[in-house]
Design brief:
binds zinc ion; 17 strands; five-stranded mixed β-sheet; Alpha-Beta Plaits; alpha+beta
């Protein structure tokens, strides 16, 4: 097969339609790194060929499309997404804005393994909001995979790029579809159809509520002292861990933020706490203890008293 993508001198993935003709394209093969020529004649469809005339290397359009989408988001530094209320609540952003431009990314990683899931892209904003992006081309997320994202509490956005086959690829259209358009983007989780225990559970029950809540015996929160400042670790009903800096100190807030973010924690501005997904609880706790110990601070358990959520 002939390739439609090459790597330019900045190591950026370029479609054959975006470069100059012939050797002037200044591109290398994505597989073997050999120099390429851009063939943009009138007869055959445009493609890259090895400058040496050697047989083309075999490359996978879908994985190149993933890479291309990631590059677009990285370079633009934003992505416009539909923002249904259920997702906004989960991400801790304004639920009154139906379409939102998410930007100021602190990291965009491709194919990171998070327990059983390996999202195409894992994006974290400077505010600590982490979500996954699945680029759909030939295969779409099935219910099992969506369930795994849900189990991890990791919101997942799907971008349908299935129409951009090698023959139908238009760089401007792809850019628009990835960055600005919302018609082919959908949140697989959370969504209206799926049950969503999180936001409901963290809203304190009103005393007027007619339904009597079952009495719950909650484990008292664990407390870690970092530099003499109290950091509270509370196990939530659905298995995630809430980490809250009780006594304000910018250094301790920074430590908690750093640890929470490194384990895909997301910030909940409403409760001013970081929610760490259940798969990372032990790792996050160990890291916090380590930070506390590094500062030669005592770690102790809070006495078991009543702690209304
Ligand atoms: Zn090659």
């Amino acid at each position: 097969m002939s390739s439609h993508f090459g790597l330019d001198k900045f190591n950026l993935l370029r479609h054959v339609s975006e470069v100059e003709r012939g050797l002037a394209c200044d591109c290398r093969c994505v597989v073997c790194q050999e120099p390429l020529v851009a063939r943009q004649g009138d007869v055959r469809e445009h493609h890259f060929a090895h400058a040496s005339n050697r047989e083309p290397c075999v490359s996978n359009h879908e994985s190149l499309l993933h890479h291309y989408a990631k590059q677009l988001i990285e370079m633009a530094g934003y992505i416009t997404v539909p923002m249904p209320e259920v997702v906004a609540t989960h991400l801790g952003v304004d639920p009154a804005v139906p379409v939102m431009r998410l930007s100021r990314f602190s990291s965009i990683e491709a194919e990171v393994s998070l327990g059983p899931v390996r999202p195409d892209l894992l994006v974290t904003t400077a505010e600590g909001v982490t979500f996954a992006i699945e680029v759909a081309y030939s295969s779409f997320c099935d219910l099992v995979k969506i369930g795994e994202f849900r189990a991890q509490g990791l919101p997942v956005l799907e971008i349908d790029l299935s129409r951009f086959t090698p023959e139908q690829f238009d760089a401007d259209d792809v850019q628009h579809a990835v960055l600005n358009a919302i018609d082919k983007k959908s949140w697989l989780w959370p969504n209206r159809e799926a049950e969503l225990p999180e936001p409901v559970s963290i809203i304190p029950m009103s005393p007027d509520c007619a339904v009597e809540p079952p009495p719950k015996i909650r484990k008292p929160p664990e407390v870690i002292l970092i530099s003499g400042r109290m950091v509270e670790l509370r196990l939530l009903d659905w298995g995630d861990l809430a980490i809250r800096t009780v006594s304000f100190d910018p250094d301790v807030v920074g430590i908690v933020k750093g640890v929470a973010k490194s384990f895909n924690g997301r910030y909940n501005p409403k409760f001013k706490n970081w929610i760490v997904p259940k798969w990372a609880i032990e790792l996050a706790k160990a890291e916090l203890h380590k930070r506390a110990n590094d500062l030669e601070i005592v770690v102790r358990q809070k006495p078991p008293v009543d702690h209304p959520q």
